[in-house]
Request: fold
Amino acid sequence: MGEVFVHRNIANIAPNNDFNFITVINYALTHLEVKHVIVCGHYHCGGINAAMEHKDLGFLNPWLRNIRDIYRLHSEELDAIQNVVQRNNRLVEINVVEQCVNIAKTVDFQKAYKTREVYLHGWVFDLKTGKLIDMKIDTDLIMNKIERIYRMD
Ligand SMILES: [Zn+2]
Reply:
């Protein structure tokens, strides 16, 4: 009660093939039975910025590929933003939303959603102002929009 169970990684991502993330989400939802799952990104994120550079970053490449794939999904909106800092910060916001969708696709979240109250939240921390920006995630909307192929009946 009143506790926070935290998992952190580069660029705040929830990759379905990362055992660390999968284990954390399983433990949090199945054993701790957390009611609120929060994805919290931050502006001027080094991981997001690195993914936007066309550099070979070695071992980081496959990890940052998750971000590049999100950029591809939203390239129309992002390409229209001329200012690089603003574009990268918008990608931070989009990434938070997309990672909530990734969590919604996990069998652990789907099971929890079917049997009890559980909510997704997407926040962006602005370190310059100290403000927390709520991306206003609608858990029901996300769960209703998840494509059939991801559903575990
Ligand atoms: Zn970061």
